[in-house]
Design brief:
The chain is an alpha+beta fold. The protein has helices at 23-28, 34-47, 73-93, 115-119; strands at 5-9, 12-21, 51-58, 64-70.
Length: 132
């Protein structure tokens, strides 16, 4: 894991996760993104922490939105642990995981550096279809 910032609030230690976001995304943001929740769940599990403070910084207006997120063992077991297990299974079998998205222009594929490879015609038969 990369190094992490932590803060102490009233004697409790919190993971501090700082994210940048554009103005449109910031305006719609009412809670941390699900991918960010999964990410910090893995960090909290490995670091033995139970709370994260998210700070989303609006790149357009420099506004900050903060959210408190608590560790949830169900999120870890149902989502994070399954992804870790899939990673090692695919590594061992030398097969790529099932594609999570169905359109290279939409999340989660929009920001994936492998999107063009995954959706290219030449690789179509080599990549598994998206999970339903």
């Amino acid at each position: 894991f990369p190094s992490h910032d932590m803060v102490s609030i009233d004697g409790d230690i919190y993971l501090l996760e700082i994210k940048t976001i554009n103005g449109v995304g910031s305006a719609r943001l009412t809670e941390p993104h699900i991918g960010h929740k999964r990410q910090v769940t893995a960090y909290m599990k490995s670091l033995g922490l139970t709370k994260t403070v998210f700070a989303y910084i609006d790149k357009d207006k420099s506004n900050v939105k903060e959210f408190l997120f608590s560790y949830d063992e169900h999120v870890y077991q149902d989502e994070v642990r399954k992804r870790i297990d899939t990673f090692f299974k695919c590594l061992k079998s030398e097969e790529p995981p099932a594609r999570e998205g169905v359109n290279p222009s939409e999340p989660p594929c929009r920001w994936c550096p492998y999107s063009q490879i995954c959706f290219s015609t030449a690789n179509w038969g080599k990549t598994r279809k998206a999970k339903k």
